[in-house]
Amino acid sequence: MKWFDYAAPRSLEEAFELLAAHPRAQLLAGGTDLLVQLRSGQKETDFVIDVKGIPELNEIRYDSANGLTLGAAAPCCRIYGDRAVSQAYAALAEVASLIGGVQIQSRASIGGNLCNAAPSADSAPVLIAYRATCRIAGPSGAREVAVESFSTGPGRTVLGPGELLVSLHLPPVEPRSGACYLRLIPRNEMDIAVAGAGAAVAVEDGVFRAARIALAAVAPTPLFVRQAGDYLVGKPVNPESIQAAAEIAKAAAEPITDMRGTAEYRRHLCGVLTRRAVEGAVRRAVEAG
Questions:
Q1: For the whole model, what pTM was predicted?
Q2: Which has the closest alpha carbon to 70: 217, 102, 201, 84?
Q3: What is the architecture of the domain spanning 177-288?
């Protein structure tokens, strides 16, 4: 691995100063992706800025009225270890426990997983389903971006020069709602998804009141299938409605063939995983009601 200089700022202002002085710097939130990429030569830099010591990036704050604020560098183990967060956002806690092994989860963060911008990122579909927004800050000020618009391609995001992802905000959980994320991986643990599907629904009197569906590993970016969720709204909660939404998600997928599976297989999985994810979200919504 090529040498690089290292800095660990303790404030956003200090981080912005370092980014301005080192335009080619790489940000380190946990390092579980970045260090591997630097070692393999996939990325190169002469300066690494470790943002894990910045208070705003380590915050985990939840209340039922305002929802969840999740610092971009907060490690996964703190998410699934927080009982209130795990109860309110069960699918998010489950995803945090899927990213790598226990040792990885003590460093890796949901924000880092999102910034890595892999189409297969497990966190992205459930964040999209939960209507998360990205809070971005830079020398020119702060802005918010819907999480489904954050990734612009493999390894690319909307972050501009000198900007960083500070936190994610998930709105309060609606009554009688639930979410679920499912994936297929070649091995039992710690592998990249062949395909994944996340769904969040709200139900009332046997009818879908709201729904959002997103897919992983089947397009150049995590794929928000708005039309599949919109289809469910107002429809009865039954196998026919859910299967129709799954077919819409399947048709929206843009998979490729690679060593993990063919495009045809991935497209088939989109239908299966979407159906099962919606069913899982419905079960949670019924239990919450």
A1: 0.96
A2: 84
A3: 2-Layer Sandwich (3.30)
